[in-house]
Amino acid sequence: MSSTEIRPVVVILTALCVTGLVEAGPVHSIPRQRAARQQGGAVLFYAAFQGSLRDILYNPVIFNQVVVNQGSGYNNDTGVFTAPVPGIYQFVFAAQLCRGDHDNSWRFMVNGVHSMSCIAQVSGLDTTLNTCYYMKELKKGDQVWVKQEVGSCAWASTISNTITFSGVLLATEGVSTLGGKYSSCPLPSLGHSRDIVPPSAGCRVSLDSVAFALLLCCLLWD
Question: Is the domain 42-176 a CATH 2.60.120.40 member?
């Protein structure tokens, strides 16, 4: 076989080797990522309050109608959510405001400390659904609840679910519970596995392998 015929073969074999290195390189890190997702990937709750919250202090508001409580973080006897795993959580509080003049003020409380205010006013016969979002990185055991200040007023019928408190774990140990680790580098796959490979390892192996392949091709080509 002439040197001209050998060169394309070498290039193809080199490319195949690079692909193998990229896909097979960071296998050792997969079990840790799987364990991280299994530990904190199923924490979410949605609870509602039926009736009226009129003008008095509620600390916390007890949302006793639990619709979803995966991970068992929310306690419908106390109204308190306790983080079962560390991570970044998002919480949502919604309340249908009463008609008339009220000083509506609710607070997201974290371990007894005021962390965010949710304030809305209407007048006369107006009413609106007031919705507030709050995001916080929590440690395991941290507690979050909704506090109503004196003068606030919200209402809900038995079926409307217009006073609600919900939360979801977005990420734990740097790994998104929605799948994948945050990075701008594409994640290589490992066969048909759905396990996530750390992007930093994937990028490092890819760049090193490509550089080696290009150098080898240049040497063989000469």
Answer: yes
